[in-house]
Write a structure and sequence with these properties.
211 residues; Laminin; 4 domains; two-stranded antiparallel ribbon
Length: 211
């Protein structure tokens, strides 16, 4: 049982007479005494008939002095953690891959569109408990399939063969330009690797000659 607090009667009197306190010396009306809690209620508690009412606070005890741990005995699942509220709690599931009151429900990132797989490089998004994985197309690699495998380079958003890393990429008829992933060909030559002749030239003896 909660112990009853010391009761203090406070009255404001203009005169005192036998039988009580009165508003004025003429004894027109008695002034009601106000029942207070002593010591005073803390943390926003309200004194009601000499007892601290803590129901509107997150505290308990005779003076509302004890903080209530609403997370006591609450087990958030899958890496979520409990957040203490005012006579309530919530489980913070952020980053866990789960949702729900206790972080108990797996989020299907592939279906919900929150997976970070690169659409150009991903063949299939695969959901897994608490996460997802990306199955990459040929030429692509990385957790999100957003990188190019060795020997390939990102060009116009796609992983293409890295022309400039080849031996003699321009067949000795031009200079390879990494920004274009293609060769800047000598006069008379054309194509990505300068292995074709421009109009007005023909292939002869390994060279494009004008005709």
């Amino acid at each position: 049982m909660r112990s009853r607090l010391l009761l203090v009667f406070v009255a404001v009197c203009s005169s005192w007479s036998v039988g009580g306190c009165f508003v004025d010396a003429a004894g027109l009306a008695p002034l009601d005494s106000t029942l207070l809690c002593s010591p005073a209620c803390s943390n926003g508690g309200t004194c009601v008939d000499g007892v601290c009412d803590c129901s509107a606070t997150d505290y308990e005890g005779d003076l509302c002095e004890v903080l209530i741990d609403d997370c006591d005995g609450i087990a958030c699942e899958n890496g979520g953690f409990c957040v203490d509220g005012r006579r309530s709690y919530s489980c913070d599931c952020d980053g866990s891959g789960y949702e729900g009151d206790l972080c108990q429900t797996d989020i299907d990132e592939c279906t919900e569109g929150t997976a970070t797989c690169d659409p150009k490089g991903t063949a299939t998004c695969v959901n897994s408990p608490g996460g997802f994985s990306c199955d990459c197309k040929p030429r692509y690699t990385g957790d999100d399939c957003d990188e190019c495998e060795d020997g390939y380079i990102r060009h116009d958003g796609e992983c293409d063969v890295d022309v400039c890393r080849r031996s003699y990429p321009c067949n000795s008829h031009g200079i390879c330009n990494p920004a274009k992933n293609a060769c800047d060909c000598d006069e008379g030559y054309t194509a990505t690797r300068c292995d074709a002749c421009e109009d007005g030239y023909r292939w002869s003896g390994g060279y494009c000659v004008q005709y």
